[in-house]
Structure prediction request, 364 residues.
Amino acid sequence: MARNGTTPGPEGQPDGQVGSTSADADGASGSVGPARALSHRAVPDERGVRASEGAGPPGDGSRKATLATEYFLDGLSKVEIGRRHSLSRFQVARLLDEARDEGIVRIQIVDPSAAGRDYATLAQQLGISSVTVAAARPGESMRAAIARQAARLLTSRLREGGRLGVAWSRTLMHLPDTLEVLPAVDIVQLVGPLSAAGYSTAESSALVHTLGARSGGRVWALPTPLVVDSPQVAASLRAMEEVRTTLDAADALDVAVVSLGAWSAGASTLWARLGADEQRRAQEAGIVAEICGIMLGGTGAVWHSALEDRVIGVRADQLRRARVIAAAPAVGRPEAVIAAARSGLVDDIVLAPELADQVVALLE
Prediction:
């Protein structure tokens, strides 16, 4: 017989959640009446009480299941259980310990932030595979919580021998905190470093090398900035063998993890790298989102402009061939999430609860 529930332990102290209790072949569980009570009383010793011969044999699983049910599920204290069954409090405690050791009691603790909330209806509205809402743990930033959920999706999407593309952002830099072990996959850096306040450009390369060391696979690093000053400089850098081979490696991505930025100051690292005229032109063109330097309008269409010739990174057609997980930290910019979904560039989106609510409201 199995029962589930959570009740406080004795003296008001929580004892955990009981996943199940089980009885042996005679099927006894629940409270027992006087007919099943033990026939011997505990006899005091120098501690005040000692175990009597009537405590029952160590293998009495039915009795242990009964005591465990009364303690963990019914909320009775050890003293109350002892009175009911003519046992001392110490005997009850010992039998409860044995019940846990023998697997009669199985305690399960569920961390509500371990798995993000799945918004299946929202994913259907957006036309993508999944939307996961991240819940931050105490002391954890929302960016770290989003990265943790993205890492959880990665481990379920990756397969041995696959190829993983990784972008860099202030959110994705938290990936190694959770991805301690990876399947044996190759790692491809999708974009080069882009300076942001408080972050070193070296962190972009460090991210892919750290993940590569944990996967044991090959690493294709991209030793160039995401955006350079002129199309001529970009063309020269793309012609370098180490750059060309990394960009070509993105043709065969199985899974990619990217960051979704809204097109505004503070919500996109690319924004700060452009001049005021370029920022204004992008806004006038209706740009609302950016992924790996690929700029998107409200309908999800990729904006083709002179800026493309200065960007060095993965192309939109390469991302569309992969399973793409997007981390979306830009609370207050739901239009960026909708544009990314409509672009066909992403399959799974991880975002904060507030942003999820904003997306739902905007779709309505």
Q: What stands out?
A: The two ends are 47 Å apart (CA to CA). Residues 1-56 have pLDDT under 50 and may be disordered.
